[in-house]
Amino acid sequence: MKIGVIGGGQLGRMLALAGTPLGMSFAFLDPAPDACAAALGEHIRADYGDQDHLRQLADEVDLVTFEFESVPAETVAFLSQFVPVYPCAESLRIARDRWFEKSMFKDLGIPTPDFANVLSQADLDAAVACIGLPAVLKTRTLGYDGKGQKVLRKPEDVIDAFAELGSVPCILEGFVLFTGEVSLVAVRARDGETRFYPLVHNTHESGILRLSVASSYHPLQALAEDYVGRVLSKLDYVGVLAFEFFEVDGGLKANEIAPRVHNSGHWTIEGAECSQFENHLRAVTGLPLGSTAKVGESAMLNFIGEVPAVAQVIAVEDCHLHHYGKAFKSGRKVGHATLRCADRERLQQQIAAVEALIRDV
Amino acid sequence: MKIGVIGGGQLGRMLALAGTPLGMSFAFLDPAPDACAAALGEHIRADYGDQDHLRQLADEVDLVTFEFESVPAETVAFLSQFVPVYPCAESLRIARDRWFEKSMFKDLGIPTPDFANVLSQADLDAAVACIGLPAVLKTRTLGYDGKGQKVLRKPEDVIDAFAELGSVPCILEGFVLFTGEVSLVAVRARDGETRFYPLVHNTHESGILRLSVASSYHPLQALAEDYVGRVLSKLDYVGVLAFEFFEVDGGLKANEIAPRVHNSGHWTIEGAECSQFENHLRAVTGLPLGSTAKVGESAMLNFIGEVPAVAQVIAVEDCHLHHYGKAFKSGRKVGHATLRCADRERLQQQIAAVEALIRDV
């Protein structure tokens, strides 16, 4: 079976590493000449809107999936004429637009920070009057890793904020005093069977994920599964979806969903019986889902800008390196390490050992 | 770092799956147009004696390693002029010739079945007179999976046996009444550091490995490590080496070595902290070795001729599929499954569950 992937970055690369042992082969459509997944499959180098090459991809593969959610709706619609596409167009339409996404949470009774649609500076002024400050103005589409957003703390910050983000459709979100950030990675099969990985506690710096620690018997696991299950059913979702929450007052408030394998699920490669990458492929190809149970106590540390010396990283016991083969560049995710330890105390020690190798670039 | 691999079959494929997350890339030299490792790297399609293409490989990569031991000595010598080659030429010279191999065991004081060099029918007659029947006549080179050998039970079997194996250099080996077949996979770094995986109990049918079960605290582990350590030191070996033994009278008799990653070590992908594939790459590239400790209780089942329906294999709990992406063909190794279970009882149950899916082809 040949899988087409829109995007050829590290997520595509890890999908191929997981799918090759299942007998799958891969084609990646990505305009970047140095797409790092290309080492593991065919690289169709073309823009995401290039219909000739999209048609070529559709003709070559059994189904198409995505590495990122900002794929143009036209691309999804075009591909869907020729080949099955998972997750479905509606999932992508919702997930790539924060207004649609937050509105869906509200419709499904899932708590989320106050929010308002902002299509103009006048809208923003009205929204600030209603929601108050501090608040966060975010572009409705194309934001990631802290990009495309601006924190508004004082009235002066509001002036011209809409223009500063490019005068594109935005939402304003009320500021949330959270005690933690957690995410739940779930997988749903074509027949609706759904499995959930353990809740993960995430630490961000400058808007970029740095550390994910898989929890053991988290008290909010059941609540998170309830919320994520509502979204998966609503979208008749197929594949892996990640749902990020804020922990607030002992409950959860929805932040955002990612309709794809997710950075906060990378620990599952070594830390779970069946990784998020293999489970995504199992789901979209109609194979039985794999176990989401943990193997030991796990954490994931991102390497941003550069991968520390390989010999030093792999010399840390219980540590597994994932080098993405990308050029090093400040602020860019270029690799990660998974720790899989016998107990939590050891895990904390080994997290510190890997953190000691990371320098900010 | 780019690694050159002589051979592009499933061992090369699994090396690439292990090395890619370490940031390595791969080139495979293999004459087969459908070499199954080619999906994961560059494929230089050429004969193993093709000096132009060997030179191309040497120019492109940082070092060269091997997927099989029957590489012509001239190939190794030629490559060694231009690029580091691991394991060394001497390791390959010994391992690919049963006479050299058995003579080395004898020199190192490692028990091995009686054996004699057979270069003619007259040599064979003399060897049979000395060793007795039953005995096994084996070609000195190029034998694998039970090929290139003939069991001699009665005096009639001896007549013309040398011609039947092609009148090529052979050895005669005394028949061993063994109670089991075990193998030890070891890895030795450039600096001589050596690590051993747990002893594995192997079951063959028609000369082909069917089942490997990793042991827990095997009483012969220390003895096997002693024997394998002698060979590794003698050869100043770098990389993974597998050593197959017969269990006889509560001790071990050496059968053969394989100077490479080995089928009886495939369980380490899921069943050990660091797989034989990653550890081989760590050793040959001068990186620190990884832990050879077990993760749970593991076994490996080979798929010979065909891979059972993927959906059925991966529906078995605790089961991990490795499909080699090769055309199905009777007697050919086309995939394997690893089981990784919480305890031995569960492991036995799940072995039976996978065996129930395998039909002889």
UniProtKB/TrEMBL annotation, chains A, B:
GO terms of biological process kind: 'de novo' IMP biosynthetic process
Domain ATP-grasp intervals: 102-285
Coiled coil ranges: none
GO CC terms, sorted: cytosol
Annotated SUPFAM superfamilies: Glutathione synthetase ATP-binding domain-like, PreATP-grasp domain, Rudiment single hybrid motif
EC identifiers of the protein: 6.3.4.18
Pathway: Purine metabolism; IMP biosynthesis via de novo pathway; 5-amino-1-(5-phospho-D-ribosyl)imidazole-4-carboxylate from 5-amino-1-(5-phospho-D-ribosyl)imidazole (N5-CAIR route): step 1/2
PANTHER family documented for this protein: PHOSPHORIBOSYLAMINOIMIDAZOLE CARBOXYLASE, PURINE BIOSYNTHESIS PROTEIN 6/7, PUR6/7
Family according to the record: Belongs to the PurK/PurT family.
Name listed for the protein in its UniProt record: N5-carboxyaminoimidazole ribonucleotide synthase
Species this chain originates from: Zestomonas carbonaria
